[in-house]
Structure formats: structure tokens, C-alpha cells
Amino acid sequence: MADKNSGVLRRLFGLVARLYRGFRSVILNLLFITLVVIIGISIFSGDDKVEVPPTAALVLNLTGDLVEEKRWTDPVATAINESLGAEEEAPEVLVADVVKVLKSATKDNRIQALVLDLSALGRGSLDKMQRIGNEITAFKAAGKKVFAYGGFYGQNQYYLASYADEISLSPMGAVLLEGYGAYPMYYKNALEKLKINTHVFRVGTYKSAVEPFLRNDMSEAAKEANIEWLNALWADYKQQVAVRRGFAVDNFDETYAALLQKLQAAEGDLSQYAVNAGLVDTIKTREAFRRDLIAIVGENEDHSYNHVTFNDYADLTIPAQQFTNPLTDKVAVVVARGVIVDGSAKAGTIGGDSTAALLRIARHDDKIKAVVLRVDSPGGSAYASEVIAQEIRLLREAGKPVIASMGSVAASGGYWISAPANEIWAEPTTITGSIGIFGLLHTAENAMATLGLNVDGVGTTELAGLSGGLPLFKGLTGEAKDLFQLLIERGYSEFLTMVGENRNMSTTDVDKVAQGRVWTGAKALELGLVDKLGSIDDAVKAAADKAGLSQYDIQLIQQELSPSEQMIKDLLGEAQAQGWLPQNTASAEQQLLRKLTTQLKQDFVLLNQFNDPNGIYSYCVSCSIN
Asked: SS3 string of 471-523?
């Protein structure tokens, strides 16, 4: 009977295996056929090249978050997720691409106007938007008009719209300028319900990165520090917009009472409120806006105004492959964007080894005479931060000056990798500082007991099982906690010493402005934590000056896609552009659910990225604004 049963099982498993192999073969064949079809259509559809009319408007319809460097995504997974409406992260737009497009449009006699269609614009820090705004200003200086039109202007959309000669709003539209806030999610009660113990080791009165796991609310120290830099950013936002729009800074409504009063005067009409407050110039229907633009640039065959979209114009003006002149001297730019992790990481995350490798390329290239490290990071692994810092020191020893250019945030580990540079340049609105470190460990010994589970055994020493994660199940002894705290204090001391040596400050003076406290770039300049205020363009010029260069090219050093990755990306990109892949059909309810779960997902993804071999981190959790 046993032999008979085993025979049946063998046949059953054999059938399953054959079905699996057959299914896999069908899928692979379908993918192959799809790729062949895409290649064929791509080859024979070359006549669809975009044409710019003799007179036209460039429509700046930016979709996604403004970033310094796009995160790496698997091209096949991205195409499938988007077609199924299952994308997990927002699309991204390179600020450098927007700048290049606007520069080209300014010089292009065919482009007579710029239309800001910002309805799909996502997040964007003030420094990134101001960089784009500077190019819009240059466009206007060339005698060309800029128009903004939309149904809803959020804070980021309105900031860019304020550069326009005229802002128009749909009759049912609205403008919402709500200010800045930092509202992390807190997990103390949830962890207690799950019987998870949180062990934190930190130095710094203001090092609040671990508060979400220790408290149910923000501490007074964290509130004190956060409201200072948030107020500074908001004041900068208001000042810039007020100047461009020609109204007073107190025109911004910061209380429900003030907003209610103005809305009552407008009889509850949000669009009329926006006109009364001077936030927009006119209320127009889409058709009225189209007619106005037709009068300026002419009419196309679709009975709209002659125009070219941002992506189409970018395809025409930005080369698909960037070629460097092997004969000229270079200032290299290396972008360090995202959380800092140990080892290698794809674009959008800073790997200690992979970012150091990019810097090493610059060190060994004789044509590269100086380097700009563009930092846009809240920090992460202390070990990986030091790996990058060591490579910066080697660049300086090789006689190549390094300028750290801080973007929206260069805090904690982001400051660590900036400190060894010859000079640190920051934007006035950069979020920086947060000089402090912490260790974080969750243990589940109480949860184990509740579940009726236990881990037991023997070891040759008391330390046996430490690297294998035994404390996760057994908890930490008092001596182990003291040990970890000692290591954190040592790490903080090394951080202070490193900053002091590079900034010509005593460790006592560094400690006064450290303690994990966050500062704006303008305040950091006063405190001696940065050298100059300016954009990445200013930083590049400073690097060239330090290297004694009067003529030079700028070379971006970045991780390259493999040939197979590039081919798949190009093919699937063409497929989506031609509409061959199904479009996102997610319902409003699905999109809302996705938004509600984003914060929770981001927090746990971040925890998963914490891979410092010593368990020591320099990260600023409150540096993200809402």
C-alpha cells in the first residue's frame, strides 16, 4: 500500500512539474513574441517624430516628484505595475531635464509662450522649484509670455505658477496654501500591543529619529527644533511668492478663522476667493484659455493652440546618450540622493560602496580636475557614510578639490558625507545639521512567550548568537544595553571630532550646534556648519575656480544601466508611448487607499534599509515635511 501511495504521489508531483514547465514556457514565449513585435513596430514607426509648429507654446506638464536623481526601477516590473494600476511609488521628474528643456525653449524662436500645466506635479523642495523658476524668469526675459492654468493649485503647484505673467483658474477651481508641517506616525502603543520591546541607544537632546518607536507624540524638544526650521521655510516661501505676485506677506491665510472670513466675503466661492486675494488673475474655462493661446501662437488641427508637451520637447532637445569630450578638462558631479545604506545600491539610494566607486572614478580620471558632490539625503548608515567620507578625503589628497552642494536636505549622514569637502554650499532653505547618531533594536521575547514559542540552547560564550539575531528572541541583558550605549557615545564623539577637524571648530563648539538639532541652510551658515549659500551651479563654478579652470565641461558620473536593462527600458517606453500597454485604471477608492498606506509603507521600508554592520545610524526622520 505504501509503494502504491508513493507511486501516486510521484505521478502527481511529476504532473505538477510538467504543468509548471509548460506554463513557464508559454509565458517566456509570449514575452519574446511581444518584444519582437515592439521592435518591429518601433523600426517601422519612425515617421511619428514630433514636429514643433513655426509658432507654438511649450506646455510644461510635469508629472511626478521633482528629484536630483531618479530612483532605479526594474523596467519590466514598472511597465506591468503601471498597466495594472499597481504602481507603488510616484513618478519622478529630473530637475536637470526641466532646466535643459527651458533653456532650449528660451533660445527656440518657434516657442513663443510657456504654459504651466502643473496638475500632476508632486513633491518638490523649494530649492528645486526655485531652480526651475530661475529658468522661467530667463524665458520671460527673452520677451516670451508665461501662462499658468489649472483647476487646483496646491502649495508646490502655486509656487511655480507664481512665476507666470498670468495665473488662470477654472471656475470650479481652488488654491490651497497650507504652510509646512512635520507629522511622523508614532508606533509606541502598536508595538506594546504586539508585545515588541524597543531598545534605543542615542546621543543628542534633539535626536528625534527614534521617537516614533518610543512615544505616542512628538517631544517638546523635537517640537522646539522642528517649528524653528519649518517657520523659516514658510517665511521664505511667503516672501518669494509675495514679491512675484505683488501683495503683502500677511495676505496668506494661516488660521481657519481668517480663511473663513475671506470665504464668507466670496459667498463660499473658492475661485472667487482666489481672485479677491490676488492669488490668481482670472477665472477662465478651458475653452476660453485655449482661445487666448490660439490668438498668440495659432490654432492646430485639433482646434486647440499650437503646442508641444514637455516630454516631446525633451525628446527633441535632450540627447538620449550623453557624450563627453575626451580632450577637455571636467568638473564632475556625483549625486548622492536618498537613504545611506551599507554596500552597493541602485540609483535613488546611496550605497556606501557604490557611491564611493563613483567618486573613485573621478579620482582616477586625469581629465576630471574637481568634483561637486550633490547631497540630497536625510542620512542612514554611519558606517557607509564614513566609507564615502574616506573617498572624499582621497580626492582631496589627489589634488582635486571637492565642493559639497546641499539640496533640499543634507542632514545627519547627509552632513557626515559633506563635512570632508573643501567647501560646503547650501541653499538658504536646505535642511541640514542633525549631527547625532542612534542605535535601534526591537526584540520580541514577550511576543514569543504569548505565542508559546521559545528559543533555547547553549554557546561557548555569552556573546554566542549575537550576530545571528538571538537578542531578537531572547531580549537584551543590562550589560548588553550598556555595551551598545557605549558604542553609540563613541560614535557621536567621532562624529563631533570629524566635523570639528573639517570645520576648524572645537568639539565643544560643534556639540553646541549638534545634539541632533536640525537647521536651515541660512542658519547653518551663521553657525559655521556651511561656507556659502548658493545653487548647484554656484557650487560647480566654485569647484572650477578652486581647480584653476576657466574653460571646462561638466560631467555627470552616475550608475549606468546594463545593455539589457537599457534595451528593455527603451522598448517598453516606446510601447507605453504608443499605447500598446494597458493604462492605469485604478479607481478613486484604490488611489485613496494607496495614499493612506503610503506613510506606513515608507516607515517600514526605511527600517528594512537600515543595514549598518555596527547597528549605528545617523538619520533625520523629521526632515520630511508635509
From this structure: HHHHCCCHHHHHHHHHHHHHHHHHHHHHHHHHHCCCHHHHHHHCCCCEEEHHH
Q: Are 273 and 266 in contact (CB under 8 A)?
A: yes
* DSSP single-letter state for residue 529: S
Strands 431-433 and 518-520: antiparallel
Catalytic residues: 207, 412
Give the cell for residue 189: 502603543
- If one counts every other C-beta atom within 10 angstroms of the C-beta of residue 361, the result is 13
Of the CATH numbers 3.90.226.10, 3.40.50.300, 3.30.70.20, 3.30.1330.90, which one belongs to the domain with range 56-177+253-317?
3.90.226.10
Distance CA 227, CA 623 (A): 11
CB distance 79 to 584 below 8 Å: no
Instruction: Give pLDDT tens digits for 193-222.
Output: 989 888 888 776 766 778 888 889 998 988
Residue type, 537: D
Tens digits of residue pLDDT in 107-141 = 999 999 999 999 999 999 999 999 999 999 999 99
The confidence score (pLDDT) of residue 113 equals: 97
Half-sphere exposure of 112 (CA within 13 A, CB side): 14
Q: Which CATH class is domain 180-248+324-626?
A: alpha beta
Question: Can you tell me which residue has the cell 515617421?
Answer: 47
Nearest Cα neighbor of 478 from 250, 259, 269, 199 is 199
Q: Which residues pair with 283 in a beta bridge?
A: 169
Element (H, E) at 69: none
**Is a pLDDT exceeding 90 seen at residue 160?**
yes
Are 391 and 371 in contact, with CB atoms under 8 Å apart?
no
What phi and psi, each to the nearest 5 degrees, are found at residue 78? -65, -45
**Residues 17-34, buried b or exposed e (16+ Cβ, 10 A)?**
eeeeeeeeeeeeeeeeee
| Cα–Cα distance for residue pair 435/272, rounded to 1 Å | 47
* Cβ–Cβ < 8 Å for 459, 263: no
pLDDT at site 591: 46
